[in-house]
Amino acid sequence: KFCNLKVCLQCSMCIHFLLSENNGDAMRKRLAPCSRHKPYCKPVKKTIIETTKAPIVPLPFSQAVLAGNTLYLSGQIGVDPVTLQLVPGGLVPETEQIFQNFIAVLEAAGGSLKDVVKVTAFLTDFAEYSAFNAVYMKYFPKDFPARSAAQVVAAPLGAQLEVDAIAIINKC
């Protein structure tokens, strides 16, 4: 075996590696990712996030799951965390409550609405889409997350919408 150099395809950094004399892949191995760019398998820690500041319902799902630094927020409807009842008044107060619940769960995970990268809204009536957008823009006034919206036949408890989200929580 002898020492040789290889060049990272990503950053052109030269790195040493041992190459056996009878290795037929010598040229292919000369161009390879360095340890910084080489894909590697690292176990991702999964943490269940739960807070009493958002509704805790007796159903088989978590308020959120933190996998690595990605937070997956379960779908929320406009349920008050104290009464566990749908807030009255229709889509606007339901939307307000949903985002207040999201804020509570995000804070429990060490994040905020600024960390949200994707939102999915399920509305029972697309005629309410502009009302949803008006409330949405209070919580996301700029640097909008990616978003999808769909009309559904029904939402739990007769709610007018359900919203889920994904956030990146960087704790460095």
Characteristic terms for this protein:
two-stranded antiparallel ribbon, six-stranded mixed beta sheet, alpha+beta, 28% strand, 60s Ribosomal Protein L30, Chain: A, 2 domains, 8 strands, 172 residues, single chain, 3 helices
Description:
This protein is of the alpha+beta class. It is built from three helices and eight strands, in the order ββαβββαβαββ. The strands form two sheets. A six-stranded mixed sheet has the order 3-4-5-8-6-7, covered by helices on one side. Helix 2 packs parallel to helix 3. About 4% of the residues have low confidence. Pfam families: Ribonuc_L-PSP. InterPro entries: RidA, RutC-like_sf, YjgF/YER057c/UK114.
As a whole number of angstroms, the C-alpha radius of gyration is 24 Å
CATH architecture of the largest domain: 2-Layer Sandwich
Average pLDDT for all residues: 85
**Helix content estimate:** 10-25%
How do the SSEs run, as a string of H and E? EEHEEEHEHEE
Distance between the termini: 41 Å
The CATH homologous superfamily of the largest domain is termed: RutC-like
CATH fold descriptor of the largest domain: 60s Ribosomal Protein L30, Chain: A
The number of distinct structural domains comes to: 2
User: Count of helices?
Assistant: 3
Q: Flag low-confidence runs.
A: 15-21
Q: Note the beta-strand portion.
A: 25-35%
| Spatial shape | globular
Number of strands: 8
Largest beta-sheet characterization: 6 strands, mixed
Query: What is the top-level CATH class of the largest domain?
Result: Alpha Beta
Q: How do the strands line up in the largest sheet?
A: 3-4-5-8-6-7
Structural class: alpha+beta
Q: What's the multimeric state?
A: single chain
